[in-house]
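re: that chain from earlier
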Amino acid sequence: MNQPDKDQPDYIKELNSQWLIDLRDEVLDPIRARALAHPFLTEMIDGTFPVHKLRRFFADLCWTIITTPGVVASLAARTPHYEHNIKTKMLENAFSEWNHSWALSQTVNALGGPGDLIYAGPDHTWDALPYAWHLRNWQVLYAYNEPWIDGVAAFAVGIEALVPSIFSPMIEAGKKHYGLKGDALDWLEWHGGEVEMQHGNNGLLILEQQVDDDDIKLQQHLRSVIHKTMMVLGEHWLDYYYDNEESPETTAA
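^ sequence. v structure.
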């Protein structure tokens, strides 16, 4: 019962708490599977997803994550003073994000977009779609307003347990069909690889340590936070940018 489905990318750690085993089997793995089967990804893997749609997706994401290091650091500051291990892991995560927006700007450049302009800012120089604003506001909500354990569940599990599943197949597709290489491929390799996978495992470990096995109410609440987060950063996100229609010139450099 405690072994992951072999059809899933095998990076979720071995779990001991039953509520996290159930979370993996009933929430994490099914949402990851649906993301992998989404036409956004399947068409990108085939090389048939339009370049301008991919450019908009990464351009808006570049704009969104410019503020992420400070947001994650703020969440780390809100963890209990005596939980030095949690603070350390969260701050290490925040520091590792310092050059991610620049790396993603190089992806946008390679796809024919204004990556340098987005990275240099200010914010109003890029007309991000409403969903990008939604993602930024979501980060602020969980970093500053909700209890710190909710923020850990959202950031360190809801995002980090899903992101590698989405971006791992984009690495080869980006190289093969969209001409991504060198600096333009770095962001995908970081987020589809072992570093991001470890972040998700760290989040699960924190929840395993912090949530009592008999605290059913808190378990149900955090499961809801993770589920909603994975929908925001999974199917709903991919749906939005898959369905978005605009002229290719709108996002061209």
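Residues 1-9 have pLDDT under 50 and may be disordered.
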